[in-house]
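Regression report. Comparing outputs from two consecutive submissions.

Submission 1:
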Amino acid sequence: MSRKPAEIAETICSQYNGKTGIPMAKVFLLAILAGAYVSFGGYLFIVVTSDAAAYVGYGLAGVIGGLVFSIGLILIVLGGGELFTGNGLFTISCLSGKARFVDMLKNWVTVYAGNLVGSLLLVVLVFAGGSYLANGGEVAVRVLQISSSKVGISFMDALIRGILCNWLVCLAVWLANSANDTTGKILAIIFPISAFVAMGFEHSVANMFFIPLGILVSGDPALVAGAGVSVGGLNLAGFVGNLIPVTIGNIIGGAVFVAAAYWYAYMRKQ
C-alpha cells in the first residue's frame, strides 16, 4: 500500500524534524556522500550523452541522460545521504512548528558545504583517473559543452531553471516517501529526475561537479579546440556566478512550490 498525499506530508514533516537531533559531523559526512553520489550520476550523464544524440536525437538523448542521472538520488534515498536540494522539504517541518527555522538554516549551510566537498572530491578523482578522455576525447568534449553552457546562462534564466529543477527534485523525494518498497521508491525517483534533466533545468549540487570538471578540462587546448565552444567563462567567477542564482532558485523551488504548498494543502490548521 502506498501512502496518500496527506500521509506523505506527515511522514516528511517527522523525518525533517528528526534531522534536528543529528550531530552536525554526521550530517556533514552524509552530505559529502550525497555530493559524490550526485556527481556519479552527473558523470554517467556526461558519458552517456557524449554520443547518444547521434543515434537517437536530441530529445531522446536528454531522456536517456536523465534516466542514468537518476542514480544519484536513488543512491541518496536508498543508501543514505544529505542533499541540499532535497532538504528544501525541511520547510514543511518548520511551518508545522515541529522544527525551528534556525535549525533548518544550520542544516542547509552544513549540507551545502558537504555537498560541495563531495562533488569536488569526484572532480579530482575523475580528472586524475583520466577517464574523461574516453571515446576519443568525446567525453571531454561533452564536459566542455555542458560546463561552458552553464556559465553562459544569465542570472534570471539560471534562477528560473533552478526553481523548476528543484520543484521536480523535491517532488521526486516526496513521491519516494509514498512507497514502502525499494522498487516503488526507485520508480518514484526516476521520472521526475529524468524530466528535469531532459528539460535542461539547473541543479546546484550537480553544477558543483560539472563546472569545476570543465574548468580543469579546459586547460587542454586540443580538447577545447575539438569542443568548439568558448571556455572564457570557465573560472571561479563563472562557477560562483552560476551557483548563486541556481541555489536561490533551488531553494524557492523546493521550499515554496513543494514544501510550503503541501503544508498549506494538508497540514495548515484550518
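Submission 2:
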Amino acid sequence: MIYILDTADLAAIKHCNEFYPLAGVTTNPSIIAKAKTDFWKLVKDIRAIIGEDKMLHVQTTQTEAEKIVEEAKLLKKELGGEFYVKIPIGEEGLKATMMLKELGIGVTMTAIFTPAQALMSAMAGASFVAPYVNRLDNILGDGCEVVAEIVSQLENYGSDCKVLAASFKNAEQVHKCASYGCHSVTVTDDIMKTLISHPMTDAAIAGFEKDWKGVYGDKTILDF
C-alpha cells in the first residue's frame, strides 16, 4: 500500500512525513485555495518538506489540452522530483494525458467515478487514477466496490496504471479498499492517525508500563 497525504497544511505534512511511511502529497485547487497563501511558495514548501524522492501531485487549473500540457511542463520544471500533474477526466484531459505521456510527465487522472473512466484513463497513459470513494457513497453508490472493479479491470488488461483512491470519510473505507487490492490511498492526517489507533492497543501499552514499573520503577533498559 502506498500512503499519500491529501493536504496543503505544512504542519500536518511535516508531522506525517516524520512519523509515517509517507510516499507523498496530493493537492487540488480546493485544498490550495483553503490555504489562502501564495501558490508557488506553498507548493515549493511542500516539496522542500517531502524531498525530491517523494511524490507531489498538483492539479491543473486549465481546461484545454494544450494549456494543460503547458501548465504541467511549468509545474514539473518548478517543482522537480517525483511529480504528477492531476487532470480531471474528460476529452481534453485524455488528450493532454496522451501528450504528456510522450513528454515523460506523470499524470494522475482525477474525479473518477466509474471503472469505465478509470480504464480509459489508463489506456491514455495515466500513471494513477483517483476514484472518489466517499462521494460515491454519498450518492448511494459503493465507492469501495468501484475501487475493487477498477483494480480488477486494470489487472485484466495488464496495465501499469495504479489506483489512487481518494475522498475518504473514515478509516474503514481505507481498510476495505486495501482488502480489495487498492494500490494507493490519499487521506487526511486525521485518518492517517486513525489507521494506527485502537483502544485495546492503548490498554496493552498501559499494561506493559504498569507491570514494568511495578518491578523496576522508573528505570529503562538504558539504565541497566
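Expected: both submissions complete independently.
Actual: both completed, but the second showed a warning that disappeared on reload.
Relevant detail on submission 2: The CA atoms of residues 133 and 139 lie 11 Å apart.
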